Amino acid sequence: MYKQILILMVIILSLTASFALAINSPSTVYVNDKEVYFIVEVVNESNTGQNLEVNYFAPVPTQVIAPGYIAPNSKTTVKIFVKNDVIIPVDISTTLEVKTDKYLSKEILLKFNQQENTNQNNPQIIIVTQDSDIANNATGVFTLSLIQGVEQISTESILLFLLILVIIVLLVVFIVRLAKRV
């Protein structure tokens, strides 16, 4: 019986992969100069290094400066330059993609030619709000790597599942031993 439990645990562990990845970026950027940049922070909290690919999709000229690799348990800074080719004030929704062995994306709103809430100390870096909400963080302990479409399973869900599994196994072993005594 113990061999079967051990085999079951090995199968469950082989289907899982450890990861922890987060994106810290502005949700709104004001673009008032000819060219501005903003900073995106990518955090790798896993114990393995990852190849890093950062894409930024916008209908205006952009340039992304990012390393191709992120070390384990570290963070890296990505600079995204945006050129202002827009004449009238307009808001444009854009998409930031971060790819390692996982995929994360975030929408960033660009506000062109609007003089509201700008940073007076450095007019080149114009960031309004900084957020790192749960929807843009993949900070789970495990994810089922063989099931397609499952992006994230929370840490609490996995720990609860494992705890329930251990309780069931211990209960079954207790009942079997009790039945042998009677």
Structural class: alpha+beta
Helix coverage percent of residues? 10-25%
The CATH C-level name of the largest domain is Mainly Beta
Number of helices: 2
Mean pLDDT: 75
Please, how many domains?
A: 2
Radius of gyration: 23 Å
Order of helices and strands: HEEEEEEEEEEEEEH
- Under the CATH scheme, the architecture of the largest domain is Sandwich
Strand content: 35-45%
Largest sheet: 9 strands, mixed
Shape: elongated
Give me the count of strands.
Answer: 13
For the termini, the CA-CA separation is 20 Å
- Say which CATH homologous superfamily of the largest domain is assigned: Immunoglobulins
CATH fold title of the largest domain: Immunoglobulin-like
What do you see in this structure?
The protein has 182 residues and is an alpha+beta fold. It folds into two domains: 2-15 and 145-181; 20-139, Immunoglobulins (Immunoglobulin-like). The chain has helices at residues 2-14, 155-181, and strands spanning 16-18, 21-31, 35-44, 50-51, 53-57, 62-65, 69-70, 74-83, 90-99, 103-112, 127-131, 137-138, 142-144. Strands 2, 3, 5, 6, 8, 9, 10, 11 and 12 form a nine-stranded mixed beta sheet that branches. The chain has a two-stranded antiparallel sheet with strand order 1-13. A two-stranded antiparallel ribbon has the order 4-7. The protein is elongated.
In short:
The protein has 182 residues and is an alpha+beta fold. The protein is 22% helix and 42% strand.
What distinguishing features does this structure have?
182 residues; alpha+beta; Immunoglobulin-like; 9-stranded mixed sheet; 13 strands
